[in-house]
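Posting for a labmate who doesn't have an account.
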Amino acid sequence: MAWQRARSDEQKAERIRELTNAAARLYESTPLAGITIAMIAREAGWTRSNVYKYFSTKEEVYLELLKEDLRAWCCDIVEAIRSKADWTAEALAAIWSEKSIQEERMIELLSVLFPILERNSSVERLTAFKIELMSDLGQLGEALAGALPFRDGQAVADFLQASSSLLIGMAPVWSPTEKQQAAIDASGYPMDPDHLKEVFRDAIEALLREFTET
């Protein structure tokens, strides 16, 4: 779609979606390090100068895309939690791990959030990201607190931090590249992705038990 100047907040949001959609398409086939603002502009049918009216760096585009992914993930889990009244740590860990593992792009972008995306984004863009993320996580935290007897609000926050760190750390291990898989096969290194996903689920259950009164 050809670029047009946004004349309202709704149009501005639509222009931003055009850019994040273009960035998402590029990400399917190109590593983040190889993507440029010019490529995003070309994919969106824009000029590079018009992209700069909305984002200063490519990292800001992907920060926005990560925000969208995180919001969708939060909403998905909140909806699942609210779909039933009675939860156990085991059942919640199962749904949490299922809905987290499937978010491959979100996990990959989270893994470079602090070292790359945040360091190459403006203070204004980063502040807006964190404010909206806190709002989304707040809703997720409320759903969690309603599902299991967390000790207090800090326990909910600690669970969210610990579970996200666990996900970022384990995901690359159960999603090896072709080269890594070839080395695993050739060396006989004992690594079963399905088993590792089960380990992740069990670890989430252990965290839930740690931070709740179950």
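Reply:
Got it, the structure tokens are right above this. The mean pLDDT is 94.
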